[in-house]
Design a protein that fits this description.
The chain is an alpha/beta fold. The protein folds into 2 domains: 237 residues, 2-enoyl-CoA Hydratase, Chain A, domain 1 (Alpha-Beta Complex); 197 residues, 2-enoyl-CoA Hydratase, Chain A, domain 1. The relative contact order is 0.07. The structure holds hexanoyl-coenzyme A.
Length: 516
Amino acid sequence: MCSGTVDFTDLEKKRNEHFLGGGKEKQEEQRRKGKLTAFERMKSLFDAGTFVEIDPFVTHECHEFGMENKKILGDGVVTGYGMIDGRLAYTFSHDFTVLGGSLGWGFASKVCKIMDLALKQGVPIIGINDSGGARIQEGVMSLAGYAEIFHRNVKASGVVPQISLIMGPCAGGAVYSPAITDFIIMTKSAFMFVTGPEVVKEVTKENVSFNDLGGAEIHNEKSGVAHFLAEDEQDCFAILRKLVSFLPSNNLEDPPRVAPKDDPNRQDQELDSILPSSPNKPYDMEAVIRKIVDNGDFLEVHKYWAKNIIVGFARLDGSPVGIVANNPEVLAGVLDIDSCDKATRFTRFCDCFNIPLVALVDVPGFLPGTGQEWGGIIRHGAKLLYAFSEATVPKLTVITRKAYGGAYCVMNSKHIGADYNFAWPNAEIAVMGPEGACNIIFRKDISEAENPEEKRSELVQDYRERFSNPYIAASKGYIDLVIEPKETRTRLISALKAIYKKREERPRRKHGNIPV
Ligand code: HXC
């Protein structure tokens, strides 16, 4: 080194070596699979020129199985921070080109460091997963590394948003970090499983492919593990950016309000005729949502799973809200095990991060049958009741049609703490539907009548007129206002403003015991 000058040769050499990851050939192989490299993903994720890498020169310290000859700078993960639409986030990105992105102690320490920094600063943690799981050669050090990460995932839960992008394999214990995070976005070619096809075959004799076992479609449609299905990696980043736009950076901030581009007093006449003439016919609840929210813009979460309930983010006069809506087009909008789980997790997420909740209710009750009872619908339904009840964010409800029985109570009723409850004039608020109710309370009258069918329909008609309307509930203050469907947007915006600064204290306790 010359005096007065600094010799950058070593640094440059190390940097170049680091950027090669597992080598040119492996990077090319990664691209052939339609995947970006770990560095390219960082560039795609963050605003141009904002990514700052830390710990590029970390290596593992393993000497087993010839590992001393396989030291690669960065140890298989790229970590750092950058800006997403001008807002700070910390990120790690697995490098599959280095030992299959497998996780050892050095790798895990890097991930833990950026998780700690994100938590101190109060900003989201975004994980890009593409890994063969625990680095087998490092034995218990890999397991310890995972557990250190899981522990931080739990500590960060409800404090900063945590989002997992799954862009390749995610196997074994590796699945549990994403599982604790708030949202999982999977590209179509990614997969996740606890035990792979070979072990499955050995244990259960079942022959199953990677995709059929844990592909992106499986986790979006069947298991509910994933929240979003991305066509490809660019789509994955686009979903992430949109999702982040609704979220505060941490639990002490309000969600980011944008300048509204839609008239708060806009009325949608089509809502007045959206309900079919028969109360047993379905209609498009997603269309109802889009007609109410700003610019019809709705980011649906868990779009392909438990479709009898719809959850997602939208804005009302520029402020983010979380929407939970029964979907009459699937199973008549009934609540079952999966839909309760889906709505519970979403409701609790919104409550953690100060996002007001809007429930759109059209629910004929809980799904009957041994499948549901044996599967624990009591437990799962109780979760949703618990979630709405414990939420202290502003809570608004609109009953568009049916609100029967226990499902009336569960779906953000006044009695479990909703702040504003509206109903459309056709709303039916009753212990159960007219047919079921009459079969129970008038069984004798019907069977002994000269014409039982005629008698039943008379009684059903009478019941409907007496109980299946919103006015009894409104007369008791359980419904604050019966509104015309077309004015739903205006009413919700006005109510949200009237309760936005809500502060609700609960008794001090370590934590509640939600019936998981
Ligand atoms: C060490 C690994 C590895 C691992 C892959 N590699 N997984 N090295 N530990 N877990 C290495 C391979 O040896 C190979 O090295 C390179 O990464 C690429 O792997 P390939 O198999 O050639 O790639 P591909 O055909 O694309 O298959 C990818 C894969 C497969 C499906 C992920 O590698 C695989 O099944 N890996 C094991 C997955 C798994 O069962 N993980 C669970 C581990 S146990 P070379 O040098 O040949 O290029 C676990 C428990 C953790 O995670 C518990 C925490 C609580």
